Structures are given as structure tokens and as C-alpha cells.
């Protein structure tokens, strides 16, 4: 059994490159350059349609491209409509983070959990994450424990 794509996020860049190559062959278009931010956008999406959804999105983007680049806006629009984690999608790139709410607003618990996860990902330890969030390490630890017990 192969785990779903959302559990194999490290495979996403390889699959993106593979599907771009396949789409280029099929459409006979010039291979568009891949911006590193594209990988980040997809790593933050849960892929309810699994690998078929990724393939479809890539083929659609390549077919729409003119060889110059693949539009990140196209993917942000698609993902925003389909819904990200718990009604919210967070896109991080080298210059900014963008939060897009889907049709359903996330609960405060959902947002708190996502923001804590993001702070931990950016800092790699709880003390630095707490500083990013503007709270004490003890307060962050308490919130993490509370989230685990839910």
C-alpha cells in the first residue's frame, strides 16, 4: 500500500518535475522553468485527489503556459477553491506568507494549531517559536500539550 501524497510531502518536488516533463512531451511545448515557490505551495496542500490531482494540476498549468513560467496564481486559485487544511491554506515563499481562507472559515483552534506548527517549522525549537509568536516558552508548551489532548 502506498501512503497518500499528503503523507509523502518530500516526494512532491520529484513528482512535479516528472509530471512537467510528461506534460511537455504530450503537449509538445517548451519546458517552463519551475519557480522554487511552486514546491512550497504544493507542500502545504493536502491533495484530497491524491497523485491524480497533482498530475492534473501540473498538466493544466503546462498546457496554459507559454514556456516562460508556470503561474503560481493559477495554483493558489485552484487550491483556494478546493480547500486546504481545515478551511485555510497558507502559502509561504521567499518573500511573504499568504493566507487564503476557503469557503469554510477555520475555527480559532485550527488557526492556533496551524500558526504554532508554522512557528515550529520556521524556528526548529520551542524557545525560538515562542519568540516568533510573542508568547513565553511555557505558554507555547501549554498550547502544544492542549492541542495534543484534543
Please tell me about this protein's structure:
With 150 residues, this protein is mostly helical. It has 7 helices and 2 strands; from the N terminus they run H-H-H-H-E-E-H-H-H. The two termini are 29 Å apart. The model has no long low-confidence stretch (mean pLDDT 78).
- Sheet having the most strands: 2 strands, antiparallel
Unreliable parts:
none
**How many β-strands, per DSSP?**
2
Q: Into which percent range does the helicity of residues fall?
A: 55-70%
Work out the radius of gyration.
Answer: 17 Å
Provide the spatial order of strands within the biggest beta sheet: 1-2
Structural class of the helix and strand makeup? mainly alpha
Strand residue percentage: 5-15%
**Which outline best applies?**
elongated
Q: What gap, in angstroms, lies between the N and C termini?
A: 29 Å
- Topology as a string of helices (H) and strands (E): HHHHEEHHH
> Mean pLDDT across all residues, rounded?
78
Count of DSSP-assigned helices: 7
Amino acid at each position: 500500500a502506498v501512503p497518500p501524497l499528503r503523507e509523502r510531502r518530500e516526494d512532491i518536488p520529484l513528482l512535479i518535475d516528472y509530471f512537467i516533463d510528461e506534460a511537455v512531451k504530450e503537449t509538445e511545448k517548451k519546458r517552463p522553468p519551475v519557480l522554487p515557490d511552486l514546491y512550497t505551495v504544493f507542500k502545504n496542500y493536502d491533495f484530497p485527489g491524491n497523485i491524480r490531482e497533482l498530475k492534473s494540476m501540473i498538466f493544466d498549468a503546462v498546457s496554459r503556459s507559454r514556456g516562460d513560467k508556470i503561474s503560481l496564481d493559477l495554483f493558489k486559485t485552484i487550491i483556494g477553491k478546493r480547500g486546504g487544511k481545515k478551511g485555510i491554506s497558507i502559502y509561504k515563499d521567499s518573500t511573504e506568507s499568504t493566507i487564503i481562507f476557503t469557503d469554510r472559515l477555520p475555527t480559532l483552534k485550527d488557526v492556533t494549531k496551524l500558526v504554532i506548527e508554522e512557528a515550529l517549522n520556521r524556528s526548529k525549537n520551542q524557545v525560538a517559536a515562542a519568540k516568533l509568536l510573542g508568547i513565553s516558552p511555557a505558554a507555547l508548551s501549554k498550547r502544544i500539550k492542549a492541542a495534543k489532548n484534543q
